[in-house]
Amino acid sequence: MSIQLENIHxxxxxxxxxxxxxxHIETGELFVLLGASGSGKSTLLRLIxxxxxxxxxxxxxxxxxxxxxxxxxxxxxxxxxxxSLFRHMTVAQNIEFGLSIRRVNRDERExxxxxxxxxxxxxxxxxxxxxxxxxxxxQRVALARALAYEPNVLLLDEPFGALDVKIxxxxxxxxxxxxxxxxxxxxxxxxxxxEAFDIADxxxxxxxxxxxxVGTPASLYQHPKTMFTATFLGTTNLLNAQRNGTSVHIGDAxxxxxxxxDHLSGKPVQLLCRPEEITLFTAPDAANGxxxxxxxxxxxxxxxxxxxxxxxxxxxxxxxxxxSLLPADARTLAxxxxxxxxxxxxxxxxxxxxxx
Length: 356
Fold this sequence. Notes:
It contains 10 helices and 20 strands. By secondary structure, it is α+β, with helices and mostly antiparallel strands.
């Protein structure tokens, strides 16, 4: 089932929480709304679910206007962060609850519950109470309950936020597999970039109630259109530059212009380069890629499987760049704080400096 939002507005008193949001989500898509706390993402999800009404605008599910319909009339399943399981009911009773309200016969309820318990990896847990389950298991039950009456749209509001890192990773992989198997159109709200990158077909970046841009994880990371997205998604290097007819000038270095940047010709720009695109060399004749100058190592920090080095460039701006290096590469360079290195970049992206 497709989802169409048209010019959605929502305010709480004088505070505008959702501002003129328009969005189309394809049938079967796993779409992630990504934003910081207070950005309006959960409010937007509740508007789609029918748990609150917009001040203006339209919500369409499969081209059917549901703007003023109740949640039950929309055919959506909702999963909350805090599970919201009935503590006095067994796992099976929790899953069957929505089916019971809809007066589904007992045999069908039991068949559907057994099917869902198997789907979420909890076959044989039907007689347990929620208190006898781990947090991750309770969230699986909440997901099964939302899927019990076969909703056309599945809505998840930070469903893994209360869980530890390892369990979050396991559950989002389970969610991805279940969503793919069922083909249900899904919107997941999160502030976790890794979560969004891991499972999303597309991501919508939201800030202060505005949907800033929408794209695949790769396109938003590599070619963001806004400064907010560039800095919100991962670590980035932003360097002052000038884009002329055939070159990007950064300090004394001249780099070829990226495609589709003619609108920035003759203007000051910000050159965006991710840390993994930075390469360090101990001598200029060994450098490859696009050399942007030399500098001194200010710091070297351990970051799990990578090392993060900060380099201060020896140019008029004295800008710093961050480079991600494999430990083996750092050992080959014999990298130390204070060492002089040459800095080159691989791929890069331009943004208008006006936004900065």
